[in-house]
Every structure is written in structure tokens, then in C-alpha cells.
Amino acid sequence: MKSFSVLVAAATLVAKVSAHYTWPQLIVGGVNTSTWQYVRETNNWQDLNPLTDVTSTDVRCYSSLESGTASTVTVAAGSTVGFTVVGNPSNLYHDGVLNVYMAKAPAGTDVASWDGSGDVWFKVYQIPAIADGITITFPSTGLTEATFPIPAALPSGQYLIRIEHIALHVASSFGGAQFYIACAQVQVTNGGTGTPGPLVAFPGAYTGNEPGILINIYYPIPTSYVQPGPPVWPASGSGSPAPPVSSTTVSSTKASSTVAPPTTTTASTTTFTTKTTTSAPASGTGAAEFAQCGGQGWAGATAWHLPQLSLAPFTCHVVNGMIVDF
Ligand SMILES: [Cu+2]
């Protein structure tokens, strides 16, 4: 109980910390470009809050409240680009999954003034969760950036690149999943002759009831995971992490160099602490929202959560020894 008192005291001190994130910088040629230079400034550029309504037009680029002054940068088909995470802390610290979509601006339309409407979006990259029947893990958790190839077969032209991290730590009720979204504007050169697809619309691609969006990732532990959205285009060797069972069929060096999620960019400045004490949930006291973090039923290695006892909208995390993101 002594450690529980310390826990509450620490929580009180930092209860106002907003611990979310966004994607302000495009990575081109291995270099971070300036904040909101090629990425459309998102509504959450200041508060970092997620989008939770997948039927909103903002599920497209999350930029309805901003002025849309981003420039368009030239990138070659087949080259690697990415987005840098900025937040508090600056990494994808929520357990979740990642998708990257692209959409081609209609002929004659400047991508800088295009809204991305219609069935125009195709997926080029994803980092799903991995459920092996015993545990579920989230390879995107902790990344400070997400990089991926522009498909070599992609025709030249102007495109939006839409990245999303779908945080699933409180996704067990409808609307609980948190979408961290941004769109960049690119001019693709040296393109191929492929036909991207399947094509989806935003909003439209998700209802919020998908098994990979409306999901309790803690209890019972999911024995499988279905990544939201269409399959990655092109179908193979395009940047989607290969399931372990099929990795032996991926034999080309090109494929093996592009299928794995980045491993060299995991968070190095943030220490997630595993809860080691156990406290019964408090009831009828002001500590209830903290007591939900008592550790019962959760033994995760990177953070601790108790969504089955969650007092929405409170969730529990320990970052650098402090509790954040209530
Ligand atoms: Cu958050």
C-alpha cells in the first residue's frame, strides 16, 4: 500500500500531461524535412489528440481546421520515405497498428488543393499486430518514425500519402480506438505502370466495428488479429511485414529488405515501466481513476493498462516513472 500512495501522488502531479502524438515531418532521402512543410498541418498539431470518429471527413487527413499551406515534394518511385513521430513522448507509445495509404490526384488537379475524396485510396504499407495464439504483440509500438517504400510500380503523378497509427489500448468499446493521422503531398517521378488497388474512400474504409478496431487487446488475449483496411498493394514484397510462417517464401533480397518493420528506430529516450505492485481497485474514492491501474490481470512488458476496469476516458501509462495520459 505504501507504493500505491506514492503512485497516486505521482499521478496527481502529472495528471494534466497530454501524452499523444502526431506526424509533422516527412522523411525524404533519409532526411527529416521541416515540420508541416510537406505534411498538411493536422487539427491536433497542438493538443496531439487523436481522432476517434471514423465516419468524420477528418478521418481522411485530419486537417479540416488548418490552413493547408503544405508544399509538394518530389520523390522517386521505389524510394523510401517516411513520417517522424512528434508528441509527448515522441514515439508511437500506444499499442496499436499502422497503415499507410496513397491516393492519386485527378489529372489536372494540383494535389495541394485536392481533398482526397472518392474511392481513391490504396494501401502501400502496414504494420499489423501479431497474435500467436498465446500473446499479442504490436511491432509498431515505440517507433519514433515509420518508413516505407513508394512502390516502384506506382505510376508517376501527384499523390497524397496518408499515414495512420490506430491505437488500441482503449478500443474495447465502440469509438475507443484512437486514430493518429496525417497526409503528405508528393510528386512521384520515375514511376511504373501498375494499377493500384483495391481502392477505398475515407470516410468509408472503416465502420469502427472491424475486428481490428473494436477489440479488447488485453482480456481475453486475442488469438488472431485482422488488420483494418484492404490488402497492401502490390500484393508481395511491397513493404508489408511478412507473417512469420510465410517468410520462407519471400526469397528475393528486395523483398527481405523491405518487409520487416523498422527496428533501428525504437524509442530510446522513453522508459516504460512495468507495474510490480498490486492494489485492489478503489471504490467510492477520488483515487478510483488511479486505482484502475493496479496491475490486476495485466503483465505486459512495455506499459500497464487495465481496460477491463477502465474508467473512461482514463487510461494508465507509466513513462519515465510518471503516470501519464489519464
Ligand atoms: Cu495518447
Q: Topology, pairings included?
A:
Blueprint: H1 2-14, E1 21-28, E2 31-32, H2 58-61, E3 73-76, E4 80-87, E5 96-104, E6 121-127, E7 130-131, E8 136-137, E9 145-149, E10 157-167, E11 178-189, H3 253-258, H4 288-291, E12 317-319, E13 322-324
Parallel strand pairs: 3-11
Antiparallel strand pairs: 1-2, 1-4, 4-9, 5-6, 5-10, 7-8, 10-11, 12-13
Bound molecules: copper (II) ion.
CATH topology: Coagulation Factor XIII, Chain A, domain 1
CATH class: Mainly Beta
The H-and-E topology, N to C, reads as HEEHEEEEEEEEEHHEE
The biggest sheet, with number of strands, parallel, antiparallel or mixed sense and barrel status, is:
5 strands, mixed
How many whole angstroms does the radius of gyration measure? 20 Å
Structural class of the helices, strands and pairings? mainly beta
From the spread of the alpha carbons, the general shape counts as globular
State the end-to-end CA separation: 21 Å
Walkthrough of the structure:
- The chain has 326 residues and is mainly β.
- The chain has one domain: Coagulation Factor XIII, Chain A, domain 1.
- Helices cover 8% and strands 23% of the residues.
- The chain contains four helices and 13 strands.
- It has helices spanning 2-14, 58-61, 253-258, 288-291; strands at 21-28, 31-32, 73-76, 80-87, 96-104, 121-127, 130-131, 136-137, 145-149, 157-167, 178-189, 317-319, 322-324.
- The strands form four sheets. Strands 3-11-10-5-6 form a five-stranded mixed sheet. Strands 2-1-4-9 form a four-stranded antiparallel sheet, with no helix packed on it. The protein has a two-stranded antiparallel sheet with strand order 7-8.
- A hairpin with a 2-residue loop joins strand 1 (21-28) and strand 2 (31-32).
- The model is unreliable at 1-16 and 237-326 (pLDDT under 50).
- The structure holds copper (II) ion.
- Residues 19-20, 94, 325 line the site of copper (II) ion.
